[in-house]
Design goal:
The protein is of the alpha+beta class. The protein has one domain: Orthogonal Bundle (Cytochrome p450). The chain has 20 helices and eleven strands. Helix 12 crosses helix 14, helix 14 crosses helix 17 and helix 14 crosses helix 20. The N and C termini lie far apart (about 95 Å). About 35% of the residues are buried. Bound molecules: protoporphyrin IX containing FE (HEM). The site of protoporphyrin IX containing FE has 25 residues, from helix 7, helix 9, helix 14 and helix 20. This is Cytochrome P450. Keywords: Heme, Iron, Membrane, Metal-binding, Monooxygenase, Oxidoreductase, Transmembrane, Transmembrane helix. It is found in: Membrane. GO terms for molecular function: heme binding; iron ion binding; monooxygenase activity; oxidoreductase activity, acting on paired donors, with incorporation or reduction of molecular oxygen.
């Protein structure tokens, strides 16, 4: 029979001599038992909620433990697995009294609803604006309503002018032939692997600075020098995204005290802004020395916006001009280069696709008239009309973006109570994350082979066939469809074709390739490759 007195004696025999045995009373044991029973019940109940809600829901802290665990691994794969379990939509419940609550979706019907049918009810919203305000200010990515509309209209018009097209293609041509290929040649000469992601980031950074500012920071040149502005820009995007997973009050307090990640963010943003302010000052000075028609020789966005007036008929402030440029750099810098990095990694794993792209480029060069034949391989420059003909390459790039979209997750906020087409109820103020990365991994959207890299799924009768923007959302959709989409395809095709036509690219064996948590889908450790010149 259970005897409490005997139990106490048993314990006292086994205690070191100098420890005075403490009496354990029945009520105390009962309290412990009750406490353990409650804990077990709560744990079982919370874990059982995983079936209904996709994740365990704990009292007070909600699903936060799962998020913390996910942050230590691959966040995008984690979101995808939860969305696959929950048929494409789930509600994330964070700790009580925090802002970490939202809905995740990857259902194309919901995406069409958000991005097109009910566009005005799903702005970027206060939460996104608050989180990104320090870095992006009132620039196009961070703006809604009139502030967004005005920038969108002006930029869209400018992107379609002949001067702008000339500026972008000319700058790209020079970057590839006078910078990229010499840098790649240097790595062959020195027989050292090269970080292709770093090289591509430098290329698109120089290219987009030309588009936004009309200046060339010179990131891509032999020796690959460190450019403080580019480094600060990267740090600022990386740290800004952390604000989405830290409770708002916490990062606001850290910002106020200027400590931890907020201190680093503050420093990086200051450096980005100082660079932009300097360019703006120099441009104003330069423009004031020109008159009339001479001003037309600048077709970058900064100069275009400098010539416009706000609602009150006043020229835009330097701060607003800075925001516009910083946002365009963010839009055009990382997106194409990280997409190209994933593309080259996928080609390394799929040599048959690489061979097909090489054959396509050779076929196009082969169609040139006799006078151009016999050109040295390195001196072949693809013309815009030839780049447009590379349909299989376009399919392969689209397939890479389907699996590794440059913007893996995007966010909107609901203004008025709403119901998604899949029945999910969204109260006013709810934050909605649409998981573009997860969409590429949904069998319900792309079929059983969704995780395979198959450019052929984009080809029909030998021609590239695009997909609905609500199924393939790498470039967003609806009124906020990426302004730079056509240019981005041109840029990626030109760069990819120039590399593949000239070199065999091989990823260094066993090189770790994993995504990094940032606004855009960087490879955490870059992409180390070796190059061999093609001959013949
Ligand atoms: C592979 C390359 C690219 C991809 C995957 C891409 C993707 C996207 C996505 C997903 C958005 C929506 C972002 C949001 O609203 O939160 C977007 C917007 C935008 N993109 Fe791109 N982009 C690419 C290249 C470019 C380039 C090269 C430029 C310009 C030089 C550019 C300019 C813009 C602009 C200005 C917006 C804002 C549109 C708006 O809010 O109205 N993009 N892009």
């Amino acid at each position: 029979m259970f005897n409490l007195a005997n139990q106490t004696t048993f314990f006292s025999h086994h205690l070191p001599k100098n420890v005075i045995p403490r009496q354990i009373f029945l009520p105390e044991i009962q309290t412990i038992e009750i406490f353990i029973s409650i804990a077990v019940f709560v744990a079982i109940h919370s874990l059982m909620q995983r079936k209904q809600h996709g994740l365990p829901v704990w009292p007070v802290i909600g699903m936060f433990p799962s998020l913390v665990l996910a942050l230590r691994g691959d966040m995008y794969e984690w979101i995808s697995s939860v969305l696959c379990r929950t048929n494409g939509t789930f509600r994330f419940r964070g700790p009580w009294l925090t802002t970490v609550h939202c809905v995740f979706t990857s259902d194309p019907r919901n995406l069409e609803h958000i991005l097109k049918s009910r566009f005005s009810n799903f702005p970027k919203g206060v939460y996104f604006r608050d989180t990104m305000q320090d870095f992006l200010g009132d620039g196009i990515f961070n703006a809604d309503d009139e502030v967004w509309r005005r920038q969108r209209k002006t930029a869209s018009l400018e992107f379609h002018t002949a001067e702008f097209r000339n500026l972008t293609t000319q700058s790209l041509f020079e970057l590839v032939h006078s910078r990229l290929l010499p840098v790649l040649e240097e790595s062959i000469k020195n027989s050292v692997p090269i970080d292709l992601q770093d090289v591509l980031l430098r290329l698109t950074f120089d290219n987009v600075c030309m588009i936004a500012f009309g200046v060339h920071p010179g990131c891509l040149r032999p020796g690959l020098p460190e450019i403080p502005f580019a480094q600060a820009f990267e740090k600022a995007t990386e740290i800004s995204v952390l604000r989405f997973v830290i409770p708002m009050t916490m990062w606001k307090v850290m910002r106020f005290l200027n400590v931890g990640t907020e201190k680093k963010l503050n420093k990086s943003i200051r450096e980005v802004h100082e660079f932009a302010d300097e360019v703006i000052r120099a441009r104003r000075k330069e423009l004031s020395s020109y008159s009339g028609e001479n001003k037309r020789r600048f077709s970058d966005l900064l100069t275009v916006f400098m010539g416009l007036k706000d609602d009150e008929g006043k020229p835009y402030s330097d701060k607003f001009l800075r925001d516009i440029c910083v946002n365009f750099i963010l839009a055009g810098r990382d997106t194409s280069s990280v997409a190209l990095s994933w593309f080259f990694w996928l080609l390394d794993n799929n040599p048959a696709v690489k061979d097909k792209i090489f054959s396509e480029t050779c076929g196009i060069v082969g169609e040139r008239d006799e006078s151009n034949m016999g050109e040295d391989r390195g001196s072949v420059v693809f013309k815009p009309e030839e780049v447009r003909k590379m349909e299989y390459l376009q399919a392969a790039l689209s397939e890479a973006l389907r699996l590794y979209p440059s913007v893996p997750v995007d966010i909107k906020e609901v203004i008025e109570d709403e119901v998604f087409p899949d029945g999910t109820v969204l109260p006013k103020g709810e934050k909605v994350f649409y998981a573009i990365y997860a969409m590429g991994r949904m069998e319900t959207i792309w079929g059983k082979d969704c995780r395979e890299f198959k450019p052929e799924r984009w080809m029909k009768d030998g021609r590239f066939m695009s997909e609905s923007a609500y199924k393939f959302t790498a470039f967003n959709g609806g009124p906020r469809l990426c302004i730079g989409k056509d240019f981005a395809y041109y840029q990626m095709k030109f760069v990819a074709a120039s590399i593949i036509y000239n070199y065999q690219v091989k990823v260094v064996e066993n090189y770790p390739v994993v995504p990094k948590l940032a606004l855009t889908m960087y490879m955490k450790y870059g992409l180390k490759v070796t190059l061999n010149r093609r001959t013949g």
